[in-house]
Every structure is written in C-alpha cells, then in structure tokens.
Automatic annotation (TrEMBL):
SUPFAM superfamilies assigned to the protein according to its UniProt record, in alphabetical order: P-loop containing nucleoside triphosphate hydrolases
Name of the featured protein: Dephospho-CoA kinase
Organism name: Paenibacillus alvei (Bacillus alvei)
Function noted in UniProt: Catalyzes the phosphorylation of the 3'-hydroxyl group of dephosphocoenzyme A to form coenzyme A.
A Pfam cross-reference name: CoaE
Gene behind this protein: coaE
Length: 198
C-alpha cells in the first residue's frame, strides 16, 4: 500500500512522516528529491540558469535558493515556469523510489511526502491521501517563527499553495496537527491500527 502525505507549509508534515517511519513505514521525501535534482551539474539546474539567468547560481555553481525564492514567490508566472522545469524530474524520481520500495518491501507501507501533491495533480498516483491540517493562522505564525520571515513574505508562501481547508476537504484521512504532539501521535496511531499496520 502507498499513501500520499501532504499539507501546507509549516503544517507539520515532517513530524507526521517521522512518526510513520518510526512505526515501520518507508518514506519517499519529495522535498529531498527536489533538492537533489538541482545539484550542481544537473540538467535541471542548467535549465534554471538558462531560463532565469546565471545570477540564480552561487559562485560555487550551486543554486541560489534565496534569490530564486524571492523571484518565484513574487510572480506566479515565474513560479509556474520553474515548476515546468523541476516537476517532471521530481515526479520521475518519486515514482522510481516508490516502485523500488514496493518491489523490495511489498508488506510495508510506503509514504510519499509531497508538499504540493494536489497542486501538482499527483493524487491519482496513491491508494489514499493523508492531509496534515492546521488552520492558516497557525501556519502563518509557525512560518514567521521558523523561517524569520515577516508577515508579507509568509503570506506570499501561503498564497502559492492551495488553502488548508481545500486540501482537508479532498483528503481520505486528516491528521489535525494544531494541538499537542501527543494529540498528533494518537491520531497517527489510530490511522496505523485502522489500516491494519500493527
């Protein structure tokens, strides 16, 4: 069985994915893959530099994430252009890792953590979708505290994603992460036992 795990920025997906891994799940991490496909020398990084300019690269040839982030979160057109460059490579590697896990460990749950799962049209790839939910006000506060952004910068990031309510309404399973860690652990345990994974 495989599940897609998603939510919004600063909703606590990494906490939930860690809890699932601790219980025996195998994790495919789309954020990690997204960082790997733009490593120096990769064709994806070359396309980014060609499209957005060589000033998107640092002196050592690696991606200037800060500069690219400022550009794409201020312009939806630029963000869509970046996604058209990066998403095919990310999707291909997600599918490769998922297939490999399913072949090598058919009895284990495979969790694929994809922040933009719905936005990228990937929902049909999974047996079910788990959404890690928090209200927007909690997201905003966590983002500002975690990343040191001001309210405008944090709002830009939130506005680049679907609302948490929209994702929650589409989910097969919702884990509400707005309470205590213990609340979240109880919900993960309930999900694990209901799926017969104990």
């Amino acid at each position: 069985m495989n599940i897609g795990l998603t939510g919004g920025i600063a909703s606590g997906k990494s906490t939930v994915s860690r809890l699932l891994v601790e219980r025996g799940a195998l994790l495919v991490d789309a954020d990690k893959i997204a960082r790997e496909v733009v490593l120096p020398g990769s064709p994806v990084l070359e396309q980014i530099a060609m499209h957005f300019g060589s000033d998107m690269l640092l002196e050592d040839g690696s991606l200037n994430r800060k500069r690219l982030g400022e550009l794409v979160f201020a312009s939806e057109t630029s963000r869509k252009q970046l996604e058209s460059i990066t998403h095919p490579a990310i999707r291909q590697e997600i599918q490769r890792q998922t297939r490999q896990y399913e072949q090598e460990h058919p009895e284990r749950l495979v969790v694929v953590d994809i922040p933009l799962l719905y936005e990228s049209g990937l929902a049909e790839l999974f047996d079910s979708i788990v959404v890690v939910y928090v209200p927007r006000s909690v997201q905003l506060q966590r983002l500002m505290e975690r990343d040191g952004w001001n309210e405008k910068e944090a709002e830009q990031r939130l506005n680049a994603q679907w609302s948490m309510e929209k994702k929650r309404d589409l989910a097969d399973i919702v884990i509400d992460n707005s309470g205590s860690l213990q609340d979240t652990i109880m919900q993960v345990d309930r999900f694990w036992s209901e799926k017969g994974l104990l």
